[in-house]
Amino acid sequence: MDTTVWIILAVAVLVVVVVGLVLARRSRRGAGEVGPGDAQTGGEIPAFPPSTGEPADPGAIDGVVITHPHGAIQKPENVASRLVRLRARLARSGALGQALLAVLGRDHLDEAAWEELEETLLQADLGIDPTTRILTELRTRIRVDGTKDPAQVRSILRELLLAEVDPTMDRTLHTQRHVLGGSAEDPDSVVYFPATFLMVGVNGTGKTTTAGKLARLLVAEDKTVLLGAADTFRAAAADQLQTWGERVGVDVVRSDREGADPASVAHDAVLRGARDGVDVVIVDTAGRLQNKSGLMDELGKITRVVTKRAPVAESLLVLDATTGQNGLRQARVFAEVAQLTGIVLTKLDGSAKGGIVVAVQRELGIPVKLVGLGEGPDDLAPFDPETFVDALLG
Predict the structure, then answer these.
(1) Regarding predicted confidence, which is higher, 103 or 183?
(2) Does the model's pTM come out above 0.90?
């Protein structure tokens, strides 16, 4: 066979391969595959088949890399155990409680003592109005009851602080999957959409780390989780999130190029979660500065894209507990854009600034749902009002 015939055969084989790849790609797109530009154009999210809970093809979404965990997977600490440990840690750091009890333990509370109490509560970022309410009621109760017993005064103060923290607020993390369609007669036709969590907040609050810790917390509660690295402006953020995924054994959806559209990555992560049948998708967003209108608009875009099929289950604002009133200003701006459902307070290692819990809840009417009390992977736990107040008072 001469050289010309070999060349013709080689060209024919190449054409067959190229045509086959093109047809396969069109078939995948027709079945609901999403390209990197779909979320940017604001088009409708394509339909996808009912979730079976089986992992989808890692290459099913264009422009997105699905990183799978490998190596040794760490077993997260269960919720009950971490609550006991964190309660002890918070109690040991009760600087506010020590200051309050030093005053309340005196035989007589004169005006200087009351001024000292006021200063202590204000320095703890409790806020002017809550501080005024607490001290006014405390003085009234002491006068009416005629008590000078420090233990009784402490008990009254505990009651008043607990009322300010408001134990009646719903602090549940809503992890139930959203039912999109189908019928009871045909269970196989039911399509589930994962509960989507958006993590928002400014740089430096520990937002990406909190997203990883939250994934561990949910896995410890037997939830299946997928992480979405929508902070595409900082390559280290996606790498950091991937490391958390490897620790706990969950996949991470991230862009294959720096500076990709965050809304597109968030959209693809949620779609991937629906296809894989996971319970919760946690989307980490870039640190938005409240005075950067463009970045805040981007966060609004992420929210709009993600909610095309189902509402966001949780929009959690991550706040640094040590930032005080500046944290309140951040919260106000984010509440306007992200429709916040809860707050995560990080760096609450010392409870001297614990009054921010009261201040931010009163300001926004949004509950603190989680607190971080350390740098360890399991140093994140649900917020419990009674435990917190007891720790404040030592």
Answers:
(1) 103
(2) no
